[in-house]
Structure formats: C-alpha cells, structure tokens
Amino acid sequence: MAKKIWTWLVPLIVVIVILAIAIPLSMKKPAEKEVIKIGAILFLTGNQAVLGEEIKNGLVLANELDNEKAEQKIELIIEDSGDDPNKAISAYNKLRLEKIPIIISSGDQVSYVLSSITNKDKVLLLGTAADSQEILGDYFFRGSLRVQKEARILGDYAVKELNCKRIGVIYINNIYGESFRKVFGDTARKNTGEIVSEEAFGIADTDVKTQILKTMQNNPDCISASGFGPGLNILFKQLREYGWNGITISPSPITDPYQFKTIGIENLNNTYFLAVDFDAENPSNEKIKEFVDRYKERFPKSPLPGKFAAIAYDNYNILAWAIRECGYDAEKVKNCLLEAKDKQGILGSIDFSTHELKIPLYLKKVENGKIITIKAITE
Amino acid sequence: MIEAYLIHLIILIGIYLILAISLQLAMGFSGLLNLGHIAFYCIGAYVSALLALNGFPFWLCFLAAGILAMIFGFLLSIPTNKLKGDYLALATLGFSFVVYAIALNWASLTRGPLGLPGIPKPVLFGISFSDNFSFLVLTLVIALISFLIIKKIVSSPFGKALEATRDDELATRVLGKNTFKLKSMALAISAFFAGVAGSLYAHYITFIDPSSFTLLQLIPVLCIVIIGGLASLKGTAIATIILVLLPEPLRFIGFPSSIVGPARQIIYALILLLILIYRPKGFFGKVELE
User: Fold this and answer.
1) Which member of B2, B205, B241 has the closest CB to residue A14?
2) Model ipTM?
3) What is the pTM of this model?
4) pLDDT tens digit string along B47-66?
5) Which chain A residues are Cβ-neighbours of B108 within 8 angstroms?
6) Is the domain defined by A148-275 classed in CATH 3.40.50.2300?
7) Does domain A36-145+284-359 correspond to CATH entry 3.40.50.2300?
8) Domain boundaries of chain A, sorted by first residue
9) Which alpha helices (H) appear in chain A, and where do they start and end?
10) Which of A315-324, B189-198, B253-262 has the lowest mean pLDDT?
C-alpha cells in the first residue's frame, strides 16, 4: 500500500515542480511601459560569499541612490551563482526570459562561461572580480582591477626601487594567485631579480608555516604575499611569528577592511601594497564620505565597505549613465562605454575604452603603524 | 528564451542522471560507499578537454574519458577491495582529494587553477552540436543509452551477483563467486559512466577548472542516489529530475537574493533529512543506507 502511494506521490511532486516553473514562465505580463532592468549574477553563497555580499551591497546602494534622483527608474535583479557555472547559466537564462540586455557577473569561471554565451546573444556582460585573461569578447567589459597589471607594477617596483634581488613568492592557489605569480615572477626576472621560491596556500588554510619556513630558508630580500581570504590573514600573522620583518609586497585585495583589520596593522609593517583611493575609515573626499555614510545607513549590520563595494558602485553608475545617455540596448551601451573617458566615480576618473576598467591606483606602505602613500600610478 | 532556460535544465538533468545512475551501480547495487565518484567525473572532464584542445575528434575524447576513468576505477578497487562501509568511504574520499590536488597542481598539464578554457563543442560524424538544442539531444541520447546499459547490467546474472555481494559478501564467496572481481568491475563500470558524464560537462560548459570537482559537487549526486532510493534506477531518475528542478521555482517567487541562495542549500539538506527520518530507503529504494 505504502509503495503504491509513493508510486503516485513522487511523479506528482515532479509535476508540481514542473508546473511551479512553467506557470510563472507562461504567465506573460500585459504589455507595460519599457522597464529598464539590469541583471546581476553574483557569488552570494560558497567560498567567496563575503566578497559577493560586498559587491551586492555596492550595486544595491548605487541602484537605490540612482533611482532616488532619476526620472526613469532602473530595476536591479540579483541572482546567486554560488560561483557555479551551471547555476550561473540557469540564472542567466532566467534573466533573459525578462529580456534583460545588460548583466553584471562576478567570478572568473562564471564570467568566462557567461561571456561565451553573452557574446553570442549580444548581451553586454560586465564582469567584476573576473581576472582570467581568457575572458574576452566584444560584449564583455572587465569591471575590476586586473591582477596582471598589479603584478607587473609591483614586480617592477620591487626590483628597481626596493632593490629586491632575491624574492620569495607565496601565493594563493587559485586563478588569482596563479595569474599574479606568473606575471610578478616574469617581471622581476626581466629586471634581473631572482625568484628564490614559490609556495602556494589555500583560501581557507589555517596554517601556512611550512610555506613560510621553506621561503625563509632561501634567504629572500623580500617576500611577495598575494591572495585573499582567511589564508592571507594567517600568512601575514605567521610571517611575523616567524620573525619576518623584511619587505613584504602585496596586491590590492589586502586593502579590503576584512583582510586589513583581521591581519592587524601591527602585522603589516614594512608592507608595500597597491590600493585604490578608498578608505572607508578615513575618506579622502566628500564623494567617498557620502558613499560610506549611505552604505552604513543602508547596511548597518554589514562590515565597512571595501574596494569591491566601491568598484561595484562605480560600475553600476557608469552602466546607468550609459543606458540613459545612449539607450537601453546592449549595442548602444557597449559603444557608449567604449567612448566613455574621464567619467567621474567615487574612485576617481573611470575609463572603459579598452573594455577594461581603468581607475587611479596608488602605491602605499605601512610604516610604524601608519599608512603612507608613496606614489600614484600613472599608467 | 523559455526554450533556452528549459533546455539548460534538461541538459543538467541528463548529465546528473548519468552521474547518479553510475554512482547507484557502485553504491546501491554493489554496496560500495564510493565518495570518490566526483574524481572519475573530474578525470573524464579533463581527459576529454585536453584531447579536444589538442585537436582530437569528439568521439575519441568521449571514449577516452570513459576508458581512462574506468582504468582509474579499477586501479582504485585494488587497494580498497577489502575495505567496507566507512573505511571505504574514507579511502575513496581520499582518492578524490588526490585527483583534485593533481588537477590543481599539475599546472603544466591542466593549467592548474587557471583552468582549461575554450573546450570545443562536440562534432560527431560531421554533425555539430554547438547549439544547445542539439547538445540536449546528444545528452539525452547518451543518458538514455547509459540508463539502458546499467539497467541491463543490474538485471543480468552479473548484477544479481553484485547485489548478493552487497548483501552478504562471505556467502557469495562461499557460492564460488570472485567478489574481488565483481567489486572491481562494478567500480570500473561506474567510473566509466562518471567519466562520460565529465566529458559531456566539459564540452557543454567549455571551461573547467579544479573548483568544478570538489566535494561540494558530490553532495547533490549523493542526495539524488539516497533520495531516489538505493538500488533503484527508477528512483534515481525521478530524484534527478526533482533535485535539479526543485530550486528553480525559487527564482520566480521573488524572494530577495540573500534568501534564495542559502534556501537552495537548505532545501537539499531538508529533503535529505526528511527522507532519512521518514523513508530511510528513499523513494523506491530496495535496501537501507547503512
């Protein structure tokens, strides 16, 4: 008897599930005035959920503030990818059901997979936290700092200016760390520097002593520590535990408040790093101050915003500007972005003319518990 | 637009079905609690992708993916043959970590964390499967063939011997059956189909990296097998459809994204919990999970 019930019940559940999908799909809304929609497929769950949340907050805030002022509102529809391409494609297809021509994505794998579809569908894709060099295409724009660029700047500076002849490299074992390691090493070698060791750590590692010991055994002049997440926090803390007080070089993810505060400024002495002009605790201008205040007001339970939130905010605003300026169409927005130079965001002058986000970068250093700006990067 | 959405979901159902019924063969029919199944999926995906990127035809990549995964399945069965239950689960789990670490660190072959982009869409006997509808047809045909082959296997005398080994290995040996050979063959065949699923996945997504093959990816497949019921192919097929489609309505309900993301994970966990409490054999299971 029980078996008989299940024999009917299970197919019934299948039918209910299928109907639950099909009914909303088939219920077409009556023709309404053109509503502008931007889709966002972000990693809100999974390993990088912290970053995803920050990006989401930046986008939501930009959307709300923009809608307060604008006559024609923009609806922001956010979907979770879990950093999984399968889920991302489902999310993309769902957004396409609503005929959304402009989508923001996060993550390398997801952005790569989506870019191959969006380029074919002629949908504009703006990738954040998407560094992979393979993510290309006419309809793809990279709305994040490029790790390869940071690696080249830091590799040059380490050898030429800091006189680091022997460098130990400790990097996160993912697409970000691998991209950094390669370009940083190539640049240092080109400038007659020597990479004495290369050691990898995992994003969630709780102990990197082995990597530190192996690096220090090679007597480096400087150590390059690149990555993000809990692993990077542990790396910096354990470097100090092992008595490393020499020069440390790190790309911009370290400036994220979550990283910076967890590591503690006392563990960052003599660390050179790249940063955008954004410090939520000490805003350098009125625009940033206003952004931080509104962010705290809107997301009182979230940590202070970092560069990911700020970049997301600027990315959204330039998209909104392009839509209003040139029209709600992927092709028109694409051309508009390519011609946009010197658009002012909270991070300074924004340029998308090469499909890549160009914003001002600064080389900074922690000295005696204080952050010192060494120079602005002009390229 | 609707077609694209549904086609993608059905392709996923096809790939997950192959993966789940192959795990069912090892776990449900042979009693091998194999937590390394995702490693065979990974091997299949990488073999197929690497060969395809080096210009080999799809049929060769596809077969090589299955065969190499099968060889690894057989090799894994040698050291783990005397292990049972939790111990076997741990050993096979260890195997999946090893395969993951190789995919991540053998950068000269796999490009490590950078992954393998640009995997071509299949071309078979001059027919291109580059659009999603044709890929769906290919996936469904392969899923159907896989289903029928595994159904044939489990209803054959060999399949009965596997079930006998699962229920009482000693008694099976006393009856003159070589249980080592039986279990090795079961694991190898199971790995073959997982490799085939991996090949389909790689050619569909066109980009793979090690993060696609972690333990997290195994969880939905395990859920399908347990919810569908051990040793039931019908249950596995139904559970595959349910678990792939179930989270989708959430996208349309209009919950905020902060709820939808975790809700998908909670749904899987909740269903699994309810099934384990109220119906330990799953929908159509013939044996209980021990």
Assistant:
1) B241
2) 0.75
3) 0.81
4) 999 999 999 999 999 999 99
5) none
6) yes
7) yes
8) 36-145+284-359, 148-275
9) 2-26, 49-69, 85-97, 108-121, 147-160, 175-190, 209-217, 230-241, 257-263, 286-298, 307-326, 330-339
10) B253-262
